[in-house]
Amino acid sequence: LLQLYNLAGAYDSNVALSITHGVSRRESFDKLAEILRCMVVRGHDLHLNVDFHYGLLHWLLGNDPMLKPNTRFVSAYLALAGKIKRICDQVNLEVAWKIQLENVQKKYGRAGL
Fold first, then answer.
1. Are residues 11 and 59 in the same domain?
2. What pLDDT is stored for residue 47 in this prediction?
3. Per the confidence metrics, is the pTM higher than 0.90?
4. Domains identified in the chain, total number
5. Distance CA 29, CA 67 (A)
6. How do residues 45-82 score in pLDDT, each as one tens digit?
């Protein structure tokens, strides 16, 4: 469903204009997470926190979709996101990919590549 709308440049509540429905709160959150994942917002001087909302939805889904969020959980969410970021920064994707290719080739031969 496309609704033309003029967004305020830094108004994160614009994300709330994305409405989903489901037979459960979990299903509705799953649908909303997919919408946020695919959402493209274009314009001049837009500063939305769609990534934050996307991560927040997954945090809620991972804990309990029926949680009643308030601002107290944000510090725990941000702390966890920071820890994950530090761990991810330590991963060398080129080395990991090379190891994966070697394992596939050992198991399946060149045809497996």
1. yes
2. 73
3. no
4. 2
5. 12
6. 777 778 888 888 888 898 888 887 677 878 888 898 89
Residues 55 and 5 reside in one and the same domain: yes
User: Token pair of 28, please?
Assistant: 């509705």
What pLDDT, in 10s, does the model give residues 86-95?
A: 999 999 999 9
Identify whether residues 79 and 63 lie together within a single domain.
no
Same domain, 7 and 56: yes
Rounded Cα distance between 67 and 48, Å, is 24
User: Which pLDDT score is estimated for 2?
Assistant: 61
Show the domain range for 109. Answer: 74-113
